[in-house]
């Protein structure tokens, strides 16, 4: 047992011991990813009780502490496995993990540019790259946040602020396939549930623009006004992309804020196919993005981009008297652009990987994800026992068993029981639907082939 008795400010030798032990743990973990199962056996109560034990007064040996962490990792599903095809995967590339370590060691405050102008400048360079990627004008800006949910909340608050004080007459419109965080965001922002309209979708699970117009007309007749119209740039359930240009036209004609939720699909904009499918995203007033999805970064790196950066400040500006010496400058104060005052050096986790790798490898990886999904969709649609529930537009393949929901569920449970792969499910038009989500740099054609083989074998075993 390694008993270090490390003080809060360790010396050079102690830092080296800690670093070596932790890096050795990390190296063993990363080296095992290629063959890692996609899920673990069910956690036993004894293990969980041990992990629930509160910290004690005395130090514990580091190797025992790391053993406990390894035990904790060996529960649930493994989002770093090549076979993890559930929800929307997060690649968690290694260089971003190193950025997280450096960011925590240097521990710079980046809420205000007065405190660390250099680090804020680095983060701002990432924001400007993103706004340029989506074709937003020079007035655009943005803020990196913990994820898509907080980004959607920030967008709702910004739209509410722009609408004016009488926001109780304002209505938010989003399709029935839109992310549930939008309704949650409205509730947190004080917008009543009966002011959120869930608009029906087409057979391709995209928003029905005619139904949207009809809903707006009915609300106008009732004395209400459109506050916000949401387009999806890749739904979580099926990867479906709304007709962004049509939604933008409706929003402009109604004086409503047009928000595009591109948390999942946004960075496919780097690819030729993605740009074609996300056409007109440049018309948005705001765009939710998640770098921990389609930029393969670790969890906790999302953001909101806006057409006019001043709209964020108008909605979120606020400071205490202890901040009276903080003046405005050329660089932004991110505390005035979102809900966070204290925030980590989040930009480093994006900036460092982009600097080390360049943009090209990210584009290539996203193209590969599109290739895998298109191949899997073709294979599954050719199998008589399955049917796709909609066209595969990005990297999610949504399908179900022709025999019905019970068979779909049986296949789903049998695939996950192998632990080679992990799938998630959803409900479409009342039916149980399986999903294959390709969005990890570790997932390759071998995994896609294995998924199709397993589906065929398990289906034939009925």
TrEMBL record:
Molecular function terms, GO-annotated: carboxy-lyase activity; pyridoxal phosphate binding; transaminase activity
Source taxon at top rank: Bacteria
Cofactor(s) the record lists: pyridoxal 5'-phosphate
Claim: Transferase is one of the keywords in the record: yes
A Pfam family annotated for this UniProt entry: Pyridoxal_deC
Modified residues (N6-(pyridoxal phosphate)lysine): 293
UniProt keyword annotations, A-Z: Aminotransferase, Decarboxylase, Lyase, Pyridoxal phosphate, Transferase
A GO BP entry: carboxylic acid metabolic process
UniProt GO cellular component terms: cytoplasm
SUPFAM superfamilies to which the protein is assigned, alphabetical: PLP-dependent transferases (SSF53383)
Coiled coil, from the record: none
Gene3D superfamilies noted in UniProt: Aspartate Aminotransferase, domain 1, Type I PLP-dependent aspartate aminotransferase-like (Major domain)
Sequence similarity: Belongs to the group II decarboxylase family.
Protein name (record): Aminotransferase class V-fold PLP-dependent enzyme
Organism: Eiseniibacteriota bacterium
């Amino acid at each position: 047992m390694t008993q270090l008795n490390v003080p809060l400010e360790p010396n050079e030798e102690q830092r080296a011991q800690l670093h070596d032990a932790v890096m050795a743990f990390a190296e063993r973990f990363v080296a095992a990813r290629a063959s890692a199962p996609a899920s673990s056996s069910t956690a036993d109560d004894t293990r969980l009780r041990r992990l629930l034990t509160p910290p004690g007064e005395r130090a514990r040996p580091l190797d025992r502490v790391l053993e406990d962490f390894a035990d904790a990792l060996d529960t649930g599903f493994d989002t770093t496995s090549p076979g993890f095809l559930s929800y929307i995967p997060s690649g968690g590339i290694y260089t971003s993990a190193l950025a997280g370590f450096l960011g925590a060691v240097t521990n710079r405050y980046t809420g205000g540019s007065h405190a660390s102008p250099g680090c804020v400048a680095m983060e701002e360079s990432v924001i400007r790259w993103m706004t340029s990627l989506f074709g937003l004008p020079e007035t655009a800006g943005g803020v990196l946040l913990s994820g898509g949910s907080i980004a959607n909340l920030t967008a709702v608050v910004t739209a509410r602020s722009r609408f004016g004080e009488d926001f109780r007459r304002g209505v938010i419109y989003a399709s029935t396939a839109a992310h549930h965080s939008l309704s949650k965001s409205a509730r947190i922002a004080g917008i009543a549930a009966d002011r959120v309209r869930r608009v029906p979708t087409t057979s391709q699970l995209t928003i029905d623009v005619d139904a949207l117009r009809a809903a707006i007309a009915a609300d106008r007749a009732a004395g209400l006004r459109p506050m916000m119209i949401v387009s999806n740039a890749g739904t979580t359930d099926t990867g479906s992309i709304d007709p962004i240009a049509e939604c933008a036209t409706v929003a402009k004609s109604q004086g409503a804020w047009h928000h595009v939720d591109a948390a999942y699909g946004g960075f496919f904009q780097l690819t030729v196919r993605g740009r074609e499918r996300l056409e007109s995203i440049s018309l948005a007033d705001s765009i939710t993005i998640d770098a921990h999805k389609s930029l393969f970064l670790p969890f906790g790196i999302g953001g909101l981009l806006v057409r006019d950066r001043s709209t964020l400040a108008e909605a979120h500006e606020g400071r205490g008297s202890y901040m009276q010496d903080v003046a405005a400058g050329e660089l932004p104060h991110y505390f005035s652009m979102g809900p966070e005052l204290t925030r980590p050096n989040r930009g480093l986790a994006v900036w460092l990987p982009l600097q080390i790798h360049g943009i090209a490898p990210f584009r290539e990886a996203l193209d590969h994800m599109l290739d895998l999904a298109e191949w899997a969709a073709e294979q599954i649609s050719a199998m008589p026992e399955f049917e796709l529930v909609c066209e595969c537009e990005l990297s999610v393949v949504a399908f179900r068993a022709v025999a019905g929901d019970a068979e779909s569920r049986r296949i789903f449970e049998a695939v996950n029981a192998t632990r080679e792969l992990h799938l998630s499910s959803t409900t479409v038009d009342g039916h149980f639907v399986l999903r294959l989500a390709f969005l990890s740099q570790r997932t390759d054609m071998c995994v896609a082939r294995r998924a199709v083989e397993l589906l065929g074998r398990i289906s034939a075993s009925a």
